[in-house]
């Protein structure tokens, strides 16, 4: 871990820390000053970084009751960054979590708790200072959010800021705060106004008990994942029906024709919970063997190679990175067919055992005084997490 870097209103030599200078590889703490408040984060520099060439930047937003280090452990965005040569910046929410050293996000119009700061301003400042501190390509800045972090990212996009070229969501996609009209919950269509159509990739588990796939649960959730996806297809002006395909309990959908080249993709895991999906180790081994060439494949007994509609062995960060980097291509899903060895190599999704399950119980309240005609907004208990 390197020394803490302080970012705020930077002048003089601090500005020279961008393009032109190499930086130490690995994870490093960073402090970002926003409206006079020092906020924490963690950044990752790949070993290939020289400071001479502009590289992509991915923001990683943790879930409730977590922190930047824990999120990087969960998401493995730093591993994907090391392999592909980009920078990751994991931000930290302002609300205290359920245990020491953990945090949650003060989501606008959704979560209100004493002590929470302006998260929109924090994200905006983090973007601005990252551009000053690192040699990044402003056209290739992306964001990913897990659970509460994805709800925060959803709110950021809905607020109308045009900073991210694409965004990814794991168990978290929203399209505005939940409101009820005529006995049915849905997104507040007046409260989500993105600056432009934006490409989105979202993941969901049918057995998610924290942010239920079908909706309901905590007051901040209420409408389901399908409703959120449908709303984003409307916001992005997408055409078609999503071209739905299912392989080994994983359902993939892609709206590939939206306004301004945007796309909306989703993965739904029939047996998925609230845990961050991880590839099945046995399948990874077979895929690796297949990539070594035919000679290696013959060493595996009774290999039967099939070609499914897509590779259902999904690692969200890797799949999001492929999606982010193919803005002008319809080839946004992994099409390499994994070889199968009986049931042991069945494609699917495991769980990141070192991360455990996030008890994402962040409650919500809405402090907006704006009336909503004949609608009831999703409010929870003040000061709840």
TrEMBL record:
Q: According to its UniProt record, where is this protein located?
A: Secreted
Chain positions covered by the region annotation Disordered? 366-385
Matching InterPro entries: AB_hydrolase_fold, FaeB/C/D
A single BP term in Gene Ontology: xylan catabolic process
For this UniProt entry, the molecular function terms from Gene Ontology, in alphabetical order, are: feruloyl esterase activity
Gene3D superfamilies attached to this UniProt entry: alpha/beta hydrolase
Q: What is its main location?
A: secreted
Which keywords are on file for this protein? Carbohydrate metabolism, Hydrolase, Lipoprotein, Polysaccharide degradation, Secreted, Signal, Xylan degradation
Which chain regions cross the lipid bilayer? none
The terms describing its cellular component in GO are: extracellular region
Q: What is this protein called?
A: Lipoprotein LpqP
């Amino acid at each position: 871990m390197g020394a803490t870097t302080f970012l705020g209103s930077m002048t003089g030599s601090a500005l020279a820390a961008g393009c032109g200078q190499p930086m130490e590889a690995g994870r490093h703490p960073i402090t970002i000053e926003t409206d006079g408040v020092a906020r924490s984060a963690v950044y990752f520099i790949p070993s290939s970084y020289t400071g001479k060439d502009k590289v992509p930047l991915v923001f990683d937003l943790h879930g409730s009751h977590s922190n930047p280090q824990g999120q990087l452990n969960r998401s493995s965005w730093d591993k994907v960054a090391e392999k592909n040569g980009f920078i990751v910046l994991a931000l930290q929410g302002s609300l205290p979590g359920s245990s020491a050293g953990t945090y949650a996000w003060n989501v606008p119009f959704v979560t209100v708790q004493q002590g929470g700061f302006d998260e929109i301003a924090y994200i905006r400042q983090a973007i601005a200072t990252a551009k000053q501190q690192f040699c990044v390509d402003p056209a290739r800045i992306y964001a990913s959010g897990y659970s509460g972090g994805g709800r925060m990212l959803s709110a950021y996009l809905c607020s109308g800021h045009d900073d991210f070229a694409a965004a990814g969501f794991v168990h978290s996609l929203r399209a505005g705060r939940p409101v009820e009209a005529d006995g049915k919950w849905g997104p507040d269509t007046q409260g989500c106004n993105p600056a432009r159509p934006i490409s989105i990739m979202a993941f969901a588990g049918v057995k998610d008990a924290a942010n239920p796939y079908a909706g309901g649960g905590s007051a901040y959730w209420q409408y389901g994942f399908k409703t959120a996806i449908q709303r984003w297809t409307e916001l992005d002006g997408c055409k078609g029906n999503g071209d739905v395909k299912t392989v080994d309990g994983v359902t993939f959908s892609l709206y590939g024709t939206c306004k301004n080249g945007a796309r909306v993709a989703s993965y739904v895991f029939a047996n998925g919970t609230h845990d961050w999906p991880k590839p099945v180790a046995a399948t990874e081994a077979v895929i690796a063997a297949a990539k070594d060439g035919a000679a290696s494949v013959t060493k595996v007994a009774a290999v039967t190679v099939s070609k499914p509609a897509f590779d259902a062995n999904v690692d969200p960060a890797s799949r999001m990175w492929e999606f982010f980097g193919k803005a002008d291509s319809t080839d946004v899903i992994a099409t390499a067919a994994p070889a199968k060895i009986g049931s042991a190599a069945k494609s699917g999704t495991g769980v990141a055992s070192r991360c455990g399950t996030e008890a994402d119980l962040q409650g919500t309240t809405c402090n907006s005084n704006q009336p909503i005609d004949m609608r009831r907004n999703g409010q929870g208990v003040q000061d709840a997490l």
